[in-house]
Design brief:
- The two termini are about 15 Å apart.
- The protein has a domain of about 110 residues.
- The protein is of the alpha/beta class and about 180 residues long.
- It is elongated and about 75 Å long.
- The chain contains five helices and seven strands, in the order αβαββββαβαβα.
Amino acid sequence: MITLGRATRVKLIGVGALGLALMTGFLLKDLRDYCLRGSQPSELTVAQVRETAARKPFVRRWVRLTEPLQLDCSRARGWVEDGKTSIVVLAFDASRQQPFWVEYNDRSQNCDDLKTIALEGMLVEPEKFWIKQGMVRPSSQYPLMELKVGATPSDLRRSAASMGAADLIFIAMLWVGYASSPRKR
């Protein structure tokens, strides 16, 4: 076995422990949300979405909104990665009090086409990524919510599997850091 210097071992063990703690937290959150998903989307009104948003800790939910949203396509942002397009559109309920970001993946960029798509997907907390891309975060008495149209609980399962794989890498780092220390004979 390779013997590493003390400073290298300490760094390896520190990074391994920190990474393991973070990834395990994400893994547990994904598993919790996946276990609470239900076998089909919950049909929610905007008022029920507000109640969901107020609960702590927030649990991502598979939902179908039963009320239409008014899309403000002039306040939309797009992102292309690996040939896939994601579009986020600012939307409001009929009273214009409850703001949403509605995210569409691999969809037409025509606003009229987006308005015809059923509002079914994962209800999540807004991603900071979109703010960095210039998306507007409206001021409102109600919390901003994000609806990932077309997303399903299987996305949570894939995310949990990725976090589990990352945990294994960090466990390996801890093992290498520990096993590479010089042994007294």
